């Protein structure tokens, strides 16, 4: 359902390089009617309204949105902004989990200690720094969208560790995140998966400002906004991934993964 909904929004902007100029005439010259996906979209909206009651309620009380506004905003974030993260990143997360079997016990211990007298929620999962560190390290090495582009809005100076570049208004810039996040001057052993790199014990909290998987720093109050190109799902994707890991290790005593598929799941006793 999401694929069809996304296709109607993205097709007018995507070149498939087939049968020009017919492609431009029939695919890129008009917007597509909503009725083509209306039925599926309404099912998705009903799903969000039913399964995200707590979040919808927060949107109404904390941000003064109507229920309808909250549902459609959530659906857009989950279905457009975060969909690539879910579709691509969760595969990377499972791959990391399969390769890092030696850290499962530590992750399981943290999850069960934090949830000893609590229910798994957004609040409780935020106390699991090792779980989040595992998620952040996966994002560092496997960002779901590796390249971003943007055109300079004004003249400015772009600084690196040892050089300054003069950027002129209108110039096209490209950021390649895997290279940025394996900078040896920032990250020790940058090519290695260090599951606890972002924990307080390792002093890794300060590294979050160099975690650019979302086309902007993971830390700081100045997150996604209309004035920048940072992904609006900057917090949604890692939070959902952390909830997934927490649920997995709360529910199962043993987890084995091969080629991103579960091969063993032993329920907690």
UniProtKB/TrEMBL annotation:
Transmembrane segments: 74-94
CDD domains according to UniProt: CYP74
Residues the entry annotates as binding heme: 231
GO biological process: sterol metabolic process
Pfam family, one: p450
GO molecular function, one term: oxidoreductase activity, acting on paired donors, with incorporation or reduction of molecular oxygen
Keywords, ordered alphabetically: Heme, Iron, Lyase, Membrane, Metal-binding, Transmembrane, Transmembrane helix
Cofactors demanded by this protein: heme
InterPro entries: Cyt_P450, Cyt_P450_E_grp-IV, Cyt_P450_sf
Record's protein name: Fatty acid hydroperoxide lyase, chloroplastic
């Amino acid at each position: 359902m999401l694929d069809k909904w996304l296709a109607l929004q993205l097709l007018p902007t995507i070149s498939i390089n087939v049968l020009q100029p017919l492609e431009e005439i029939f695919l890129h010259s008009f917007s597509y009617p909503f009725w083509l996906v209306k039925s599926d979209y309404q099912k998705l909206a009903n799903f969000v309204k039913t399964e995200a009651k707590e979040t919808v309620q927060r949107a109404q009380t904390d941000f003064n949105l109507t229920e309808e506004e909250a549902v459609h905003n959530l659906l857009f974030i989950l279905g457009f902004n975060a969909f690539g993260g879910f579709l691509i990143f969760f595969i990377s997360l499972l791959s990391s989990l399969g390769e890092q079997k030696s850290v499962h016990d530590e992750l399981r211990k943290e999850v069960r200690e934090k949830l000893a007298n609590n229910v798994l929620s957004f609040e409780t999962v935020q106390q699991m720094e090792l779980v989040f560190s595992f998620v952040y390290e996966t994002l560092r090495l496997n960002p779901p969208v590796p390249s971003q582009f943007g055109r300079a809005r004004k003249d400015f100076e772009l600084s690196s560790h040892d050089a300054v570049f003069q950027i002129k208004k209108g110039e096209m810039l490209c950021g390649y995140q895997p290279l940025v996040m394996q900078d040896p001057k920032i990250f020790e052993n940058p090519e290695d998966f260090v599951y606890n790199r972002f924990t307080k014990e390792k002093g890794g909290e300060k590294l979050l400002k160099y975690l650019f998987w979302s086309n902007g720093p993971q830390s700081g109050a100045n997150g996604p906004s209309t004035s920048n190109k940072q992904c609006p799902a900057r917090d949604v994707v890692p939070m959902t991934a952390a909830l997934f890991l927490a649920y997995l290790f709360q529910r199962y005593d043993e987890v084995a993964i091969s080629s991103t598929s579960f091969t063993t799941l032993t329920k907690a006793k």
